[in-house]
Design a protein that fits this description.
Elements lengths: L1 H7 L3 H18 L3 H10 L28 H16 L18 E2 L13 H5 L3 H8 L10 H4 L2 H7 L6 H7 L1 H5 L20 H4 L2 E4 L8 E3 L3 E4 L5 E3 L4 H6 L1 H8 L7 H5 L4 E3 L1 H4 L4 E4 L1 H6 L19 H5 L2 E3 L11 E3 L9 H6 L2 H13 L3 E10 L5 E2 L7 E3 L4 E10 L15 E10 L4 E5 L13 E2 L2 E4 L16 E5 L7 E9 L7 E11 L3 H8 L8 E12 L1 E3 L11 H14 L3 H14 L4 H13 L3 H14 L4 H13 L3 H14 L4 H13 L3 H14 L4 H13 L3 H14 L5 H11 L1 H4 L7 E3 L18
Helix pairs in contact: 21-22, 21-23, 22-23, 23-24, 23-25, 24-25, 25-26, 26-27, 27-28, 28-29, 29-30
């Protein structure tokens, strides 16, 4: 399949010609009102970020970045450069705030010469394997691709180049810190083609990872430190590096590079008021999702436990190096490809190696489990579950409802993460007869490349004040999100399909459920490249098929990759819980403990469901059973605290939550609830301690902002109280936002079902909405 896709791709030369043509067209569009309108309609803002690609108008390049140990000379050179740039720089958001609306920072808090960054080619003449991998990576292409570049003129002509600092703090930090993102820039932008270079990452000295949007502090780049450990900027000769390899390593390597917080500086983003002139909205929270997953081991409330794994553990796995690489250890080197989900960029550029590695990464990670869990004959018939464990019969003409459970099993973040409105991940459900003839098909690709609009997709739909989908990703116009069907790490969703077996069916029918993924959404690719482009890769992430025989169906042995039966019940229970079908969830978790009476989380899950159902007596009984099996279990203890609060046993609640915090100091939920209880029990000092600790974990937590504003005022800290109240006001949900979502859903009945907590996809005339669905979805 990969080779077929590669053959269908345009040649590299023609793609480069297309790239140049797109660039010229985008620049021309900026010069005419008609072009502005066309650009606004056809180009989008990609990856939640805004970029600019402009020709140099007045070139200024510092040519004195030569290697020097004279610190005063280095500082003088930087001051001369900063003074030159600062004379014409648009400090739109306050003097000295060079990266706002982004959060990128630099030591010295002033502009840094772009020539201070040794380019990747310089590093690559020794680090050949790293350089080879980096050349096809998304980091190298973080700025220059048409998926970024063609869209920037929308923002450029709508609000101005200064606003592009918001995301270029991550995708082109040299341009931001060098002062290049301003009107009439004097900066030589020759570095644009390199995107994120070796020295942009390896010069970062600290991060404010919980802020995102470029929450790093960049040091002056240096490939050597002196004998006292002081950084020595400039480009030393090879002989100097080879003579002091230990000092080279100290300059470019830090323990910080191995921590997930390093990645979080950019893989978390908010849309600030300085960008949208509205309020602060969370854009994507990949780091937060990891922190709440089983892989972080920081959250006691996950449905499954797992080994500690960082972002680097998945996206920078070690493999044998082919080319010479001084950074290799025992013949292996950490990946500088950073494989993830972006197959579009390597496909566009003809990076065959990167494309194959990306598709391999997506296919072989065992990230999802697809389970055709049950069938039901008729809308209200008995559920046959788990499928394969019970005999049943089927007759021609019967209406069958199939229940497909998709488990986010081994992804450290949601399916899909980040700017999910630009990606396409969906369930393809297909029913065929014994001759291969199609009976029912949901989630198919149309001849024009578009996805079936009724497919169950793991996506969202941001909308503006007119209730219109922000199709071109003009993120500063987003005011609400009509729905969000992503699956968080470690959780599951239940998708229902209904079809009718033909009256003349013989033998049986084959039922197949697949989860497919395409980067990017077809309409977005069309916006950027036009409709005349090759088909971009569609990758199957996981699949399961079952044959339903006409007549008798016997018990079947599990297939390779199937979850054990207790886990199948557990996953459907999680899905029922998230869909607020509490009775069904309690039943499913009850089946779990029948199969595994020693499974502590099974009883805890029953308790959690009953808490959500407000059946606190039943919740207490289940949770106390869990604690008898595992007295120190933090998850059961947390939910026991919820029952204690309900019953007015505040001392017991506090004792429980303190026990959880002692085991999991970075548990957001435990610290939040402990802070609330301390506040209610007139223990303000203790409450303030918890909310401050919570804010260090998640600076966007609304409960922390609100309660700290009250507590600080109580203790006379008026300035801090005012600051927290301002944050709360900026970040709280706009009460008018659901109106925009409802306007969108009324205008799009073909996908409005996706906003409901559960619904049925059907080819039947009655439309496939079983019983009375609970309305869901919501706002940002």
């Amino acid at each position: 399949m990969i080779q077929q896709l590669l053959r269908r791709r345009l040649s590299k030369d023609s793609e480069r010609a297309r790239e140049k043509s797109l660039s010229n067209a985008a620049l021309k569009a900026a010069t005419s009102k008609r072009g502005v309108v066309l650009a606004s309609l056809a180009m989008v803002f990609f990856l939640g970020c805004l970029f600019v690609f402009l020709p140099t108008t007045h070139a200024f390049s510092d040519k004195d970045a030569a290697y020097s140990t004279d610190k005063s000379k280095q500082e003088a050179q930087r001051k001369q450069y900063a003074d030159k740039v600062g004379q014409s720089y648009n400090f739109a958001f306050g003097k000295g705030r060079i990266s706002v609306p982004g959060n990128g920072a630099v030591e010295g808090n002033t502009f840094l010469q772009p020539d201070a960054f040794p380019n990747a080619k310089y590093c690559g003449h020794c680090h050949q394997e790293a350089y080879h991998q980096w050349q096809q990576s998304l980091h190298r292409n973080s700025f220059r691709t048409p998926f970024y570049r063609a869209s920037v003129n929308i923002l450029l002509n709508t609000k101005g180049i200064q606003f592009t600092r918001h995301c270029d703090s991550c995708h082109n930090p040299i341009a931001v810190l060098a002062g290049g993102l301003t009107q009439d820039s004097v900066v030589d932008r020759k570095f644009d083609q390199d995107g994120l270079t070796c020295m942009t990452c390896h010069s970062i000295q600290q991060v404010q990872s919980t802020l995102g949007n470029g929450g790093y502090v960049m040091g002056v780049p240096a490939v050597l430190v002196d004998e006292k450990g002081n950084r020595m900027p400039g480009i030393p000769p090879d002989s100097e590096i080879l003579a002091h390899l230990d000092r080279h390593s100290k300059a470019v390597m830090q323990d910080l590079l191995h921590k997930p917080e390093f990645c979080a500086a950019c893989h978390k983003a908010n849309l600030p008021k300085t960008l949208n002139e509205y309020k602060e909205i969370r854009a994507f929270t990949t780091y937060d999702e990891w922190q709440n997953s089983k892989f972080s081991q920081r959250n006691p409330l996950t449905f499954y436990q797992g080994d500690f794994t960082t972002c680097q553990g998945c996206h920078m796995k070690r493999a044998a190096n082919v080319l010479p690489e001084p950074g290799a250890k025992n013949g292996t080197f950490v990946s500088h490809r950073w494989p993830a989900g972006n197959s579009a960029v390597p496909f566009y550029y003809g990076f065959d190696e990167q494309l194959e590695k990306t598709i391999e990464f997506l296919r072989t990670g065992n990230y999802l489990n697809v389970d055709i869990f049950a069938i039901r004959k008729g809308s209200n018939g008995e559920m046959i579950a788990p499928l394969g464990t019970k005999p049943f019969t089927l007759a021609p003409g019967e209406v069958v409802q199939a229940m497909v459970v998709i488990q986010n099993k081994n992804i450290g973040h949601s399916l899909v993460p980040e700017v999910r409105d630009l990606y396409e991940a969906w369930v393809e459900f297909e029913v065929t007869d014994s001759a291969g003839k199609e009976i029912y098909h949901s989630g198919f690709i149309k001849p024009d490349g578009m996805l079936d609009e009724r497919a169950h997709s793991f996506t969202n739909r941001p909308v503006n004040t007119g209730g219109i989908f922000v199709d071109n990703h003009k993120v500063w116009t987003i005011h609400s999100v009509a729905y969000d069907n992503s699956i968080q790490a470690g959780r599951s969703t239940l998708v229902r399909y209904e079809f009718q077996i033909p009256q003349d069916a013989k033998g049986g029918v084959m039922v197949t459920a697949r989860v497919n993924y395409r980067h990017l959404r077809q309409t977005y690719t069309n916006n950027v490249l036009g409709k005349d482009h090759p088909a971009y890769p569609i990758v199957q992430l996981a699949a399961r098929s079952r044959t339903l025989n006409i007549g008798e169906n016997a018990v079947e042995a599990p297939a390779t990759g199937d979850n054990p039966d207790w886990m199948r019940w557990n996953n459907v229970g999680i899905a029922y819980l998230d869909q607020q079908q509490y009775e069904e969830a309690v039943h499913a978790f009850g089946e779990v403990v029948k199969l595994r009476p020693d499974y502590v989380d099974g009883y805890t899950n029953i308790g959690l469901t009953n808490i959500s159902w407000e059946k606190f007596g039943s919740a207490r009984a289940a949770i106390e059973t869990a604690l008898k099996l595992s007295p120190d279990n933090a998850r059961a203890t947390y939910y026991h605290a919820q029952v204690e609060r309900r019953d007015g046993h505040y001392a017991g609640e506090i004792a429980d939550l303190k026990k959880v915090v002692a085991q999991f100091p970075q548990s957001r939920d435990a610290r939040r609830e402990l802070g609330v209880t301390y506040y209610q029990q007139e223990m303000p000092h203790e409450a303030m301690e918890q909310f401050e600790a919570l804010q260090a974990i998640d600076p966007d937590d609304l409960a922390a902002h609100y309660n700290l504003s009250l507590l600080y005022r109580r203790f006379g800290m008026k300035d801090k109280a005012k600051e927290q109240l301002t944050f709360f006001t900026l970040k709280k949900v706009d009460p008018g936002a659901p109106t925009y979502s409802q306007d969108f859903l009324r205008q799009h009945p073909e996908i409005s079902n996706e906003s409901k907590l559960w619904h049925v996809h059907s080819d039947m005339e009655h439309g496939g909405i079983a019983d009375t669905p609970v309305m869901g979805g919501g706002t940002q």
